[in-house]
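quick one, 472 residues, struct below
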Amino acid sequence: MGSLLKPWIVRYQDAEGRFVAKGTPGATKVKDRAEKWYGQYKDANGKRQRVPLCTDKQAAKKLLAKLEADAKTKELYPEPPISEQERKAREHSGRTILEHLEDFRRHLESNDRVSEYVQHTYSCAHAIIERCRFQHIADLQPSAIDAFLGQLRKPTPLVSLPSGKELFTVHEVTALLGMKPEAIGRMARRRLLACKESGRERRFHRADVEAICARRCRGLGIATSNHYLTAIKRFSKWLVKDGRATHDPLAYMSRLNARTDIRRRRRSLDAEAFARLLEGAMQGRPFRGLTGEDRAILYLFASNTGLRANELASLTPNSFNLDAKNPAVTVAAAYSKHRREDVQTLRGDLARVMRSYFVGKPADQQLWPGSWSANAAEMLRIDLAAAGIPYEDNAGQVFDFHSTRHKFISDLAASGVHPKVAQVLARHSTIQLTMDHYTHLSAHDQTAALAKLPALTLPKKHENDPRQTGAA
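---
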């Protein structure tokens, strides 16, 4: 049974009545009763405790009774010991979620992730955290993320351009589109915005500005929305894996079907158009350190191996084994999309072209150096324009740098390569991805396939059949 008391409080005063520390020369001891009531009771472990309560005795009795009841409850129903993961999670609970995100970014960088991947993942997760106003790990809510992504996908009203105005300055375009001047410059270089004059006199045509406005107002595509969701889910999963959270609140969030909203439909090029592209590139001016010949060989190699831009940018002559019975090129795991070393077999004529291209090039330096891989779309658009090939055809299908991978796989299918072999050469995890997404067959390919079918045979006419003789 607990008890109430008012203990004596001992203090020391100097000659002027000021309270001083014990041992001060000339200080006198003063004993006073405490203003507050104190309660004495035994806690759940049987240890005696003395705690200050309040100045009102009746209120102090109630507080003491509650402390005794709580202690009795803990004694009868002790809390189970917390796990090591829960203990670590409690230690991290006081930090802001943006601090955890910075640690996640350093984790990705320490695992030798490609810098573009790290920045993309970080930016998408950061945007969700900022817009959803998450402060701590406990604030992560699937419903808030769903609402944010849904808002991004929602179309917005079209921006109305001033009537009668045909040319717009950079400042006017940035104000209308809500974009930075640097982004406008990139769009102009990629031929998305046709401009008149250059420098400070640069002006953009009304039709191009309207097209960009319409594109921006249609809302974010499902594929891009899925990128945002994937980034925040990876962050949330890492929080659990690193012991910063006890469970993943976003584990059951799933991506939407991007095939219902394909914004960029890629196409392949036939042999004649691709030859024109190589010719246009060969005669073009240098781009980010790559000469016309460099770009022509790059396009030729990409369309015959299916390697991606980052993988191509990492290659050196040492990456190739051209003297083997089956020539091949090796992509280091640090640059492969699947984070594993990939060995891609080369066709014989391509191996001979590459052997000639290596002449005079250092064996341990990049074949295609520079920052072109971050601007591959812009580079290819320039060479397409020089070759007179439209970036986007009448069906709305585009040919960008990644389309060289589509061309490689489509050419395999058109040549009658077995789908399983095509999947292995494409380095795809499923054959559905190879056949459904990357294979583009033209009407000529379909006609050629039909021509391989057995010849048609018709039943012979019967002389006594009235339907053949016209008799009634």
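The chain has a mean pLDDT of 83.
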